[in-house]
Each structure stands twice: as structure tokens, then as C-alpha cells.
Amino acid sequence: MGIVSSIAGAVQATPGAFLLDKTSDPDHNRSVLTFVGGPKAVADAAVAAARVAVERIDLTKHTGVHPRLGAVDVIPFIPVDDATLAGCKSLARAVGARIWQELRVPVYLYEAAALRPECERLENVRRLVSKGLAPDFGEGRHPTAGVTAVGARKFLVAWNINLRTTDVAAAREIARAIRESSGGLPAVKAIGLPLESRGQVQVSINLVDFERTPLYVVFDEVLRHCGERGIEIAGSELIGMIPAAALEASRGHDLRWENLRPELVLENRIRETPLCSTL
Fold first, then answer.
1. Fewest 10 Å CB contacts: which of 132, 167, 175, 186?
2. Which residues are CB-neighbours of 45 under 8 A, at least 6 positions away?
3. Shortest CA distance to 157 belongs to which of 216, 207, 222, 218?
4. What is the pLDDT of residue 217?
5. Is pLDDT above 50 for 130?
6. Which residues participate in catalysis according to the annotation?
7. In a 10 Å sphere around its CB, with 0-12 CB exposed, 13-18 middle and 19+ buried, how is residue 44 labelled?
8. Domain locations in the chain?
């Protein structure tokens, strides 16, 4: 956790950037930092955080169940308040160039920042990197930090539904059934993963558009598939933060949250920052 604290400290030390949350998971061996600020502040904070991660993390010694491209796996820029996706696209491309120029870590651009259609979906980038796709900035791989994906997108909800079983094959079957790419629910990306520290498995979900498919629709579909297999849902957990509108769209539905609390609601934390008075 010392490394994660150092990375978070780099964000907090950046003038005009405000760290809202940091979330870590031992099975994934992965951390998510959420911070806000003006364009220059968030760009500088992202590069500062990446610098510490590249210096402190040796990917050749890394273990974790979540797919990963590098020590700095992904950096998404997300519009809030009056920011635009077009502005985030420009910011992502500028930060991608800086990460290569300053840290010598090759960078792939994805989603709205992508320069190539095959890189618009992050899962495609992960797949194509392993097949030798050239980066948008730089070349090869950093010897200890791998590569990084930098993008611009709408706010997604990173969310895990944990199952009271050790049957990872079942989790993968359910993930395949609900994800859009396999003919499942619109705006849903999902994989099945083992959680050795808990003696459970999980359906790990990225809900990329909660207006198209609300949280409760995803949960109910997982619940249905679990019922067909005689598996109980242990609970669901939020990774990072969530917009208030995503919760409102599922008001009245029991999602069996394990960790939801007011400070993980995006708008609540933004209101607590000095930035709020300038928005």
C-alpha cells in the first residue's frame, strides 16, 4: 500500500488537482484513483502519478487476476460539469504524448481519443497489444512498466458482483452471457474472475452507459443466471466512484451493496473540494 499512497500523494501535490478516492483490491492487485481539476491540473496530476508508478512498480514481478497492460494500466479522462468529451480527447492525446516523451512508456489511445478504429474499444487494445499492434506514441515496451492506454470517455461504473462459490467457470459463463459483445446486455462489459482471498468468484463488470442499461437490470440478469446454477450472490461492490444519476436509476432495487457509502458518490465528493466554488 506504500506504493499506492505515493501515487496518490503525487496527485495531491499537484496544484489544482483534488483526489476524490483511491480503491485497491488484493486479488486484482489493482488500484483506481479518481481525481478532478481543471484541464492543466488533471493532466499534470496524471503524469505525476504515472511517473511514480513507473518508478515504483515492476510489472515483471506483478501478479493479479485482472488483465493489465502496464504499471499504469489505463488513464481515462472523463467530462464533468461543463467539460466536454472533445476537450477530454485533446487532453488524453496530449498526456499520452507526455508519458512517452517524459517517461518512455509507449502509449495506446482508446475510446474517444483513439486515432485508429480498432483501438476505440479498450478490450480490443488489450487483445491487439499482445498480437504486436504498434503504439500510438513510442515503440516496444518499457522493460518494467509495460505500456499504457490513455483515453477519453463517459463515466462508466466499475462494479463487481461476488458469488458464493469457487466455480470460476460459472462466473465466466455468466459474464459471457451478460456482456454486449457476446449478445448480452447493451453497454455491459464483463469477465469472470477468482477471488482466492475470499474463497469466492466474481463477475467483474464495466457498465459503460448506465442510462442505456441501469445497474438493476444487470444485477437481475446475473441473479437469474445464478439461480439457474444454484449459486448465491454474496454481494456487489463498487470500484472507484459512481454518479448519483446511476444510483437514482436503480432506486428501490436491492443491489446487495457491500461497500457503497455517501463519499463514493461523485457529486458528494466534488462538493467537498475547493474546486466546487469555481464550477
1. 132
2. 10, 11, 14, 17, 35, 37
3. 207
4. 98
5. yes
6. 66
7. buried
8. 2-152, 157-269
